[in-house]
Write a structure and sequence with these properties.
Distance between the termini: 59 Å
Number of strands: 14
Strand content: 15-25%
CATH topology of the largest domain: Chloramphenicol Acetyltransferase
Oligomer: single chain
CATH superfamily of the largest domain: Nonribosomal peptide synthetase, condensation domain
Length: 415
Protein backbone atom coordinates (compact mmCIF):
# COMPACT_ATOMS: atom_id res chain seq x y z
CA UNK A 1 0.00 0.00 0.00
CA UNK A 2 1.34 3.41 -1.00
CA UNK A 3 1.87 5.74 1.96
CA UNK A 4 0.67 9.32 1.47
CA UNK A 5 1.67 12.27 3.66
CA UNK A 6 -0.27 15.58 3.42
CA UNK A 7 1.88 18.59 2.56
CA UNK A 8 2.89 20.52 5.69
CA UNK A 9 2.30 24.29 5.74
CA UNK A 10 5.73 25.28 4.36
CA UNK A 11 5.56 22.77 1.51
CA UNK A 12 2.05 23.86 0.50
CA UNK A 13 2.84 27.59 0.43
CA UNK A 14 6.00 26.91 -1.61
CA UNK A 15 4.04 24.69 -4.01
CA UNK A 16 1.45 27.41 -4.57
CA UNK A 17 4.07 29.98 -5.53
CA UNK A 18 6.35 28.01 -7.88
CA UNK A 19 7.81 29.98 -10.79
CA UNK A 20 9.72 28.47 -13.67
CA UNK A 21 11.80 31.62 -14.20
CA UNK A 22 13.20 31.54 -10.65
CA UNK A 23 13.18 27.94 -9.37
CA UNK A 24 13.01 27.39 -5.61
CA UNK A 25 16.26 25.46 -5.22
CA UNK A 26 18.63 25.05 -2.33
CA UNK A 27 22.25 24.64 -3.45
CA UNK A 28 24.73 22.84 -1.18
CA UNK A 29 28.38 22.52 -2.15
CA UNK A 30 30.90 20.43 -0.23
CA UNK A 31 34.59 20.47 -1.15
CA UNK A 32 36.72 17.44 -0.30
CA UNK A 33 40.45 17.19 -1.07
CA UNK A 34 40.60 13.67 -2.49
CA UNK A 35 39.07 11.60 -5.25
CA UNK A 36 35.62 10.09 -5.02
CA UNK A 37 34.92 6.66 -6.49
CA UNK A 38 31.71 6.90 -8.58
CA UNK A 39 30.34 3.42 -7.87
CA UNK A 40 30.95 3.68 -4.11
CA UNK A 41 29.42 7.16 -3.88
CA UNK A 42 26.33 6.14 -5.83
CA UNK A 43 25.85 3.09 -3.60
CA UNK A 44 26.40 5.09 -0.39
CA UNK A 45 24.04 7.90 -1.37
CA UNK A 46 21.23 5.57 -2.41
CA UNK A 47 21.59 3.67 0.86
CA UNK A 48 21.51 7.00 2.76
CA UNK A 49 18.24 7.85 1.02
CA UNK A 50 16.77 4.55 2.19
CA UNK A 51 17.91 5.25 5.77
CA UNK A 52 16.08 8.60 5.66
CA UNK A 53 12.89 7.46 3.91
CA UNK A 54 11.15 10.84 4.17
CA UNK A 55 13.46 11.96 1.32
CA UNK A 56 12.14 9.26 -0.99
CA UNK A 57 8.91 10.91 -2.06
CA UNK A 58 7.11 12.47 -5.01
CA UNK A 59 3.99 14.57 -5.28
CA UNK A 60 0.95 12.32 -5.56
CA UNK A 61 -1.35 12.97 -8.52
CA UNK A 62 -4.55 14.73 -7.55
CA UNK A 63 -7.73 16.40 -8.69
CA UNK A 64 -8.69 20.09 -8.63
CA UNK A 65 -11.19 19.37 -5.84
CA UNK A 66 -8.63 17.83 -3.44
CA UNK A 67 -8.31 19.62 -0.11
CA UNK A 68 -4.59 18.89 0.27
CA UNK A 69 -1.52 18.19 -1.79
CA UNK A 70 0.11 14.93 -0.72
CA UNK A 71 3.53 13.34 -0.83
CA UNK A 72 3.71 9.74 -1.98
CA UNK A 73 6.52 7.83 -0.24
CA UNK A 74 8.52 5.38 -2.39
CA UNK A 75 10.76 2.47 -1.48
CA UNK A 76 13.57 3.59 -3.77
CA UNK A 77 14.51 6.37 -6.17
CA UNK A 78 12.50 6.70 -9.39
CA UNK A 79 15.52 8.09 -11.25
CA UNK A 80 19.30 8.11 -10.97
CA UNK A 81 20.14 10.91 -8.57
CA UNK A 82 23.96 10.84 -8.63
CA UNK A 83 25.84 12.13 -11.68
CA UNK A 84 29.52 12.63 -12.52
CA UNK A 85 29.94 15.51 -14.99
CA UNK A 86 32.90 15.28 -17.36
CA UNK A 87 35.86 17.13 -15.79
CA UNK A 88 36.89 20.34 -17.53
CA UNK A 89 37.68 24.02 -16.93
CA UNK A 90 33.97 24.97 -16.82
CA UNK A 91 32.54 21.84 -15.20
CA UNK A 92 32.11 23.33 -11.72
CA UNK A 93 30.71 26.62 -13.04
CA UNK A 94 28.20 24.74 -15.20
CA UNK A 95 27.13 22.51 -12.28
CA UNK A 96 26.54 25.58 -10.09
CA UNK A 97 24.50 27.23 -12.83
CA UNK A 98 22.36 24.11 -13.19
CA UNK A 99 21.75 24.11 -9.44
CA UNK A 100 20.35 27.64 -9.67
CA UNK A 101 18.42 27.28 -12.91
CA UNK A 102 16.74 23.87 -12.59
CA UNK A 103 14.83 22.26 -9.73
CA UNK A 104 14.47 18.47 -9.49
CA UNK A 105 10.83 17.78 -10.42
CA UNK A 106 8.36 16.95 -7.69
CA UNK A 107 6.90 14.21 -9.88
CA UNK A 108 9.91 11.88 -9.44
CA UNK A 109 11.33 10.55 -6.18
CA UNK A 110 13.49 11.99 -4.65
CA UNK A 111 13.39 15.78 -5.33
CA UNK A 112 17.16 16.07 -4.88
CA UNK A 113 20.19 15.52 -7.14
CA UNK A 114 23.88 15.05 -6.35
CA UNK A 115 26.64 15.95 -8.83
CA UNK A 116 30.27 15.04 -8.10
CA UNK A 117 32.59 17.36 -10.04
CA UNK A 118 36.28 16.43 -10.11
CA UNK A 119 39.06 18.99 -10.59
CA UNK A 120 42.70 19.55 -9.70
CA UNK A 121 41.79 20.51 -6.12
CA UNK A 122 39.83 17.34 -5.38
CA UNK A 123 36.08 16.99 -5.74
CA UNK A 124 33.05 19.25 -5.32
CA UNK A 125 29.84 17.52 -4.25
CA UNK A 126 26.87 19.66 -5.36
CA UNK A 127 23.42 18.92 -4.00
CA UNK A 128 20.46 20.55 -5.74
CA UNK A 129 17.31 20.43 -3.63
CA UNK A 130 13.74 21.33 -4.54
CA UNK A 131 12.90 23.64 -1.63
CA UNK A 132 9.21 22.79 -1.88
CA UNK A 133 10.08 19.42 -0.38
CA UNK A 134 13.29 19.76 1.65
CA UNK A 135 15.63 22.28 3.22
CA UNK A 136 19.41 22.50 3.42
CA UNK A 137 20.02 21.13 6.94
CA UNK A 138 17.86 18.06 6.21
CA UNK A 139 19.80 17.25 3.03
CA UNK A 140 23.12 17.83 4.77
CA UNK A 141 22.03 15.20 7.32
CA UNK A 142 21.46 12.76 4.43
CA UNK A 143 24.89 13.58 2.96
CA UNK A 144 26.52 12.99 6.35
CA UNK A 145 24.98 9.51 6.40
CA UNK A 146 26.29 8.92 2.87
CA UNK A 147 29.78 10.05 3.94
CA UNK A 148 29.76 7.56 6.82
CA UNK A 149 28.61 4.74 4.54
CA UNK A 150 31.21 5.66 1.91
CA UNK A 151 34.24 6.19 4.13
CA UNK A 152 33.44 3.90 7.03
CA UNK A 153 34.23 6.62 9.54
CA UNK A 154 32.03 8.08 12.26
CA UNK A 155 30.15 11.15 11.03
CA UNK A 156 28.15 11.76 14.19
CA UNK A 157 27.38 15.42 14.87
CA UNK A 158 29.32 17.39 17.46
CA UNK A 159 27.45 18.78 20.43
CA UNK A 160 25.99 22.26 19.89
CA UNK A 161 27.71 25.03 21.89
CA UNK A 162 26.23 25.87 25.28
CA UNK A 163 25.10 29.49 25.47
CA UNK A 164 24.98 31.47 28.68
CA UNK A 165 21.38 32.62 29.11
CA UNK A 166 20.88 36.38 28.95
CA UNK A 167 17.71 37.89 30.32
CA UNK A 168 18.28 41.43 29.06
CA UNK A 169 14.99 42.88 27.85
CA UNK A 170 15.06 43.68 24.13
CA UNK A 171 14.62 47.32 23.08
CA UNK A 172 11.30 48.20 21.43
CA UNK A 173 11.30 47.09 17.81
CA UNK A 174 10.23 49.35 14.93
CA UNK A 175 6.61 48.98 13.89
CA UNK A 176 5.95 45.76 11.93
CA UNK A 177 3.54 47.76 9.77
CA UNK A 178 6.23 50.12 8.46
CA UNK A 179 7.27 49.38 4.91
CA UNK A 180 10.77 47.86 5.00
CA UNK A 181 13.63 48.90 2.77
CA UNK A 182 14.12 47.12 -0.52
CA UNK A 183 17.58 46.22 -1.80
CA UNK A 184 18.37 48.98 -4.28
CA UNK A 185 18.66 47.79 -7.87
CA UNK A 186 22.13 47.49 -9.31
CA UNK A 187 22.89 46.28 -12.82
CA UNK A 188 20.41 43.49 -13.60
CA UNK A 189 21.57 40.38 -15.40
CA UNK A 190 20.75 39.56 -19.02
CA UNK A 191 18.28 36.76 -18.28
CA UNK A 192 15.83 35.59 -15.58
CA UNK A 193 16.94 33.38 -12.72
CA UNK A 194 19.52 33.67 -9.95
CA UNK A 195 23.18 34.57 -9.79
CA UNK A 196 25.55 33.55 -7.02
CA UNK A 197 28.93 34.38 -5.53
CA UNK A 198 30.79 32.09 -3.12
CA UNK A 199 33.70 33.18 -0.97
CA UNK A 200 35.65 32.25 2.14
CA UNK A 201 36.26 34.71 5.00
CA UNK A 202 37.90 34.51 8.43
CA UNK A 203 35.46 33.66 11.22
CA UNK A 204 34.83 36.87 13.18
CA UNK A 205 36.37 36.97 16.64
CA UNK A 206 33.90 37.09 19.52
CA UNK A 207 35.24 37.89 22.99
CA UNK A 208 34.63 35.15 25.57
CA UNK A 209 31.45 35.91 27.50
CA UNK A 210 30.23 38.48 24.98
CA UNK A 211 26.44 39.03 25.18
CA UNK A 212 26.08 38.36 21.46
CA UNK A 213 26.76 35.42 19.13
CA UNK A 214 28.47 35.09 15.77
CA UNK A 215 24.96 34.98 14.31
CA UNK A 216 24.34 38.45 15.77
CA UNK A 217 27.60 39.66 14.22
CA UNK A 218 26.44 38.30 10.86
CA UNK A 219 23.07 40.00 11.32
CA UNK A 220 24.69 43.36 12.04
CA UNK A 221 27.16 42.97 9.17
CA UNK A 222 24.28 42.21 6.78
CA UNK A 223 22.27 45.23 7.98
CA UNK A 224 25.22 47.63 7.73
CA UNK A 225 26.13 46.25 4.30
CA UNK A 226 22.66 46.87 2.88
CA UNK A 227 22.37 50.28 4.52
CA UNK A 228 25.62 51.32 2.83
CA UNK A 229 24.58 49.73 -0.49
CA UNK A 230 21.27 51.58 -0.48
CA UNK A 231 22.96 54.89 0.39
CA UNK A 232 25.35 54.41 -2.52
CA UNK A 233 22.33 53.97 -4.80
CA UNK A 234 20.33 56.91 -3.50
CA UNK A 235 17.59 54.92 -1.77
CA UNK A 236 15.52 56.58 0.92
CA UNK A 237 16.30 55.22 4.43
CA UNK A 238 13.70 52.75 5.69
CA UNK A 239 13.72 50.09 8.40
CA UNK A 240 15.71 47.02 7.44
CA UNK A 241 13.79 43.79 8.02
CA UNK A 242 15.90 40.64 7.96
CA UNK A 243 14.26 37.21 7.76
CA UNK A 244 16.17 34.62 9.77
CA UNK A 245 15.43 30.86 9.74
CA UNK A 246 15.53 29.16 13.14
CA UNK A 247 16.08 25.41 13.28
CA UNK A 248 15.53 23.55 16.55
CA UNK A 249 15.83 20.02 15.15
CA UNK A 250 18.43 17.55 16.46
CA UNK A 251 21.29 16.86 14.07
CA UNK A 252 21.61 13.13 14.72
CA UNK A 253 19.94 10.28 12.83
CA UNK A 254 16.58 11.13 14.44
CA UNK A 255 16.45 14.51 12.70
CA UNK A 256 13.05 15.03 11.04
CA UNK A 257 13.58 15.34 7.29
CA UNK A 258 11.69 17.98 5.33
CA UNK A 259 11.29 21.74 5.68
CA UNK A 260 11.89 22.08 9.39
CA UNK A 261 12.85 25.70 10.01
CA UNK A 262 10.64 28.49 11.27
CA UNK A 263 11.11 32.08 10.15
CA UNK A 264 11.50 35.13 12.38
CA UNK A 265 12.00 38.71 11.27
CA UNK A 266 14.49 41.08 12.89
CA UNK A 267 13.81 44.75 12.20
CA UNK A 268 16.38 47.52 12.63
CA UNK A 269 15.44 51.19 12.32
CA UNK A 270 17.64 53.58 10.28
CA UNK A 271 18.66 55.47 13.42
CA UNK A 272 19.76 52.20 15.10
CA UNK A 273 22.19 51.53 12.26
CA UNK A 274 23.99 54.75 13.17
CA UNK A 275 24.70 53.56 16.72
CA UNK A 276 28.20 52.45 17.77
CA UNK A 277 28.67 48.84 16.66
CA UNK A 278 28.95 47.38 20.22
CA UNK A 279 25.59 48.93 21.13
CA UNK A 280 24.03 47.75 17.87
CA UNK A 281 25.31 44.23 18.54
CA UNK A 282 23.76 44.22 22.02
CA UNK A 283 20.41 45.48 20.71
CA UNK A 284 20.40 42.92 17.92
CA UNK A 285 21.30 40.08 20.29
CA UNK A 286 18.48 40.95 22.70
CA UNK A 287 15.99 41.22 19.85
CA UNK A 288 16.96 37.91 18.20
CA UNK A 289 16.90 36.05 21.55
CA UNK A 290 13.39 37.30 22.24
CA UNK A 291 12.17 36.34 18.77
CA UNK A 292 13.66 32.85 18.96
CA UNK A 293 12.02 32.25 22.32
CA UNK A 294 8.52 33.09 21.11
CA UNK A 295 6.41 30.10 20.03
CA UNK A 296 5.26 30.72 16.47
CA UNK A 297 4.10 28.63 13.48
CA UNK A 298 6.78 28.07 10.85
CA UNK A 299 5.59 30.80 8.47
CA UNK A 300 3.43 32.68 10.94
CA UNK A 301 -0.25 32.52 11.84
CA UNK A 302 -1.38 33.85 8.46
CA UNK A 303 0.19 30.95 6.56
CA UNK A 304 -1.29 28.43 9.00
CA UNK A 305 -4.73 29.92 8.33
CA UNK A 306 -4.25 29.94 4.54
CA UNK A 307 -3.41 26.24 4.48
CA UNK A 308 -6.38 24.99 6.48
CA UNK A 309 -8.03 22.31 4.26
CA UNK A 310 -11.53 23.79 4.26
CA UNK A 311 -11.62 24.59 0.51
CA UNK A 312 -10.06 22.90 -2.55
CA UNK A 313 -6.31 23.35 -2.62
CA UNK A 314 -6.51 24.91 -6.11
CA UNK A 315 -8.64 27.75 -4.71
CA UNK A 316 -6.20 28.31 -1.86
CA UNK A 317 -3.34 28.39 -4.38
CA UNK A 318 -4.94 31.25 -6.32
CA UNK A 319 -5.65 33.15 -3.09
CA UNK A 320 -2.09 32.63 -1.81
CA UNK A 321 -0.54 33.93 -5.04
CA UNK A 322 -2.78 36.98 -4.97
CA UNK A 323 -1.95 37.76 -1.36
CA UNK A 324 1.77 37.30 -2.07
CA UNK A 325 1.60 39.92 -4.83
CA UNK A 326 -0.38 42.30 -2.64
CA UNK A 327 2.04 41.89 0.28
CA UNK A 328 5.17 42.39 -1.84
CA UNK A 329 5.93 45.91 -0.50
CA UNK A 330 5.98 44.51 3.07
CA UNK A 331 8.23 41.54 2.25
CA UNK A 332 11.44 41.58 4.27
CA UNK A 333 14.52 43.27 2.86
CA UNK A 334 16.78 40.23 2.82
CA UNK A 335 17.04 36.66 4.09
CA UNK A 336 20.04 35.79 6.25
CA UNK A 337 20.41 32.05 6.79
CA UNK A 338 23.27 31.15 9.10
CA UNK A 339 23.73 27.38 9.15
CA UNK A 340 26.45 27.88 11.76
CA UNK A 341 29.27 25.47 12.48
CA UNK A 342 28.81 22.38 10.30
CA UNK A 343 28.19 19.68 12.94
CA UNK A 344 29.32 16.71 10.83
CA UNK A 345 32.90 15.82 9.84
CA UNK A 346 31.67 14.90 6.33
CA UNK A 347 34.60 12.51 6.19
CA UNK A 348 34.71 10.42 3.00
CA UNK A 349 37.54 8.18 4.18
CA UNK A 350 41.08 7.76 2.95
CA UNK A 351 40.44 8.49 -0.72
CA UNK A 352 37.88 11.31 -0.43
CA UNK A 353 39.01 12.97 2.76
CA UNK A 354 37.26 15.34 5.13
CA UNK A 355 35.26 18.38 3.98
CA UNK A 356 37.27 21.58 4.02
CA UNK A 357 34.50 23.93 2.82
CA UNK A 358 30.69 23.82 2.80
CA UNK A 359 28.49 26.40 1.10
CA UNK A 360 24.72 26.74 1.04
CA UNK A 361 22.61 29.14 -0.99
CA UNK A 362 18.90 29.81 -0.59
CA UNK A 363 16.45 30.94 -3.31
CA UNK A 364 16.49 34.67 -4.06
CA UNK A 365 13.20 35.41 -5.76
CA UNK A 366 11.77 38.89 -6.06
CA UNK A 367 10.53 41.01 -4.36
CA UNK A 368 13.28 40.23 -1.82
CA UNK A 369 15.82 39.45 -4.50
CA UNK A 370 18.84 38.72 -2.26
CA UNK A 371 19.81 36.01 0.22
CA UNK A 372 22.90 35.78 2.40
CA UNK A 373 23.81 32.27 3.57
CA UNK A 374 26.72 31.39 5.83
CA UNK A 375 28.28 28.26 7.30
CA UNK A 376 31.58 27.60 9.05
CA UNK A 377 33.98 24.73 8.49
CA UNK A 378 37.56 24.24 9.68
CA UNK A 379 37.59 27.65 11.34
CA UNK A 380 36.55 29.55 8.19
CA UNK A 381 33.32 31.30 7.25
CA UNK A 382 31.82 30.23 3.94
CA UNK A 383 29.59 32.95 2.51
CA UNK A 384 27.14 32.60 -0.37
CA UNK A 385 25.45 35.65 -1.86
CA UNK A 386 22.57 34.77 -4.18
CA UNK A 387 20.49 37.30 -6.06
CA UNK A 388 17.75 37.64 -8.61
CA UNK A 389 19.02 38.62 -12.05
CA UNK A 390 16.16 41.12 -12.29
CA UNK A 391 17.77 43.08 -9.41
CA UNK A 392 21.54 42.61 -9.45
CA UNK A 393 24.45 41.42 -11.58
CA UNK A 394 27.89 39.86 -10.95
CA UNK A 395 29.64 43.18 -10.29
CA UNK A 396 26.97 44.06 -7.75
CA UNK A 397 27.57 40.74 -6.03
CA UNK A 398 31.28 41.47 -5.81
CA UNK A 399 30.60 44.89 -4.30
CA UNK A 400 28.22 43.43 -1.72
CA UNK A 401 30.83 40.80 -0.81
CA UNK A 402 33.45 43.50 -0.19
CA UNK A 403 31.05 45.57 1.89
CA UNK A 404 30.04 42.53 3.93
CA UNK A 405 33.64 41.48 4.60
CA UNK A 406 34.49 44.98 5.83
CA UNK A 407 31.38 45.31 8.02
CA UNK A 408 31.94 41.85 9.50
CA UNK A 409 35.49 42.84 10.43
CA UNK A 410 34.06 45.97 12.08
CA UNK A 411 31.92 43.83 14.39
CA UNK A 412 35.07 41.98 15.39
CA UNK A 413 37.47 44.80 16.14
CA UNK A 414 34.95 46.85 18.08
CA UNK A 415 33.39 43.84 19.90
Amino acid sequence: MTVRVPFPVVDEIARHCLQEAEPETVHIEVRVPGRIDPARLRKAFHEALRRHPRVLMRQAPGRWSDRRYAWELTEDADVEVVTFPEPGPNALRDARNRSLAWAPPLSASPPVRLAAVRDADGCALLLTVNHTALDGPACLRVLATAAELYGGRDNSPTRPPVRTPDTTAPPPAPSPWARPARVAAGTPGPSPGNGMLLCELPLPHRPRGAPYTVNDQLMVATALTLARWNREHGARPRPLRITMPVDDRPRDATMPIGNGTRLVEVTLAPEELRLPVPELLSRTAARTRALKAQPRPQLGHGAALLTRPVTPVAWRAALTRGLRRAAAPWTSTVLLSNIGRIPYPLDFGEDGGRARAVWFSAPARMPRGLTVTTASTAGRLHLALRWSHTLLGPEDGARLRDLFAHRLHTTEVTG
